[in-house]
Amino acid sequence: MQDQERWVSADEVAEHLSMTPQWVREMARDGELPGVKFGIYWRFRISQIDEEMERRAATPRTRN
């Protein structure tokens, strides 16, 4: 059986990104961060979070 990356909480993602857990949950709810909701809990894969952050860093942003 191959090792699989574990699911982590919004608190762990927040610490990883130096953000607040509330921000992580809001971004996930709005579809801005990849995550899965299990009941009332959000769960994430750090590798997917890192990929999304890299994608965002490479995408030019314009001010509205």
List the helices and strands and how they pair.
Elements: E1 8-9, H1 10-17, H2 21-29, E2 36-38, E3 41-44, H3 46-58
Helix pairs in contact: 1-2
Give a description of the structure.
The chain is an alpha+beta fold. It has one domain (11-58). The protein is built from three helices and three strands. It has helices at residues 10-17, 21-29, 46-58; strands at 8-9, 36-38, 41-44. A three-stranded antiparallel sheet has the order 1-3-2. Helix 1 packs across helix 2 (21-29). The radius of gyration is 13 Å and the shape is globular. The model has no long low-confidence stretch (mean pLDDT 93).
> What is the string of helix and strand elements?
EHHEEH
Structural class: alpha+beta
Strand content: 5-15%
How many domain regions? Answer: 1
Average per-residue pLDDT, rounded, comes to: 93
Main beta-sheet annotation:
3 strands, antiparallel
The total of helices stands at 3
Low-confidence stretches: none
For the secondary structure, the number of strands is 3
Give the strand order of the largest sheet, numbering strands 1, 2, ... along the chain: 1-3-2
In short:
By secondary structure, the chain is α+β, with helices and mostly antiparallel strands.
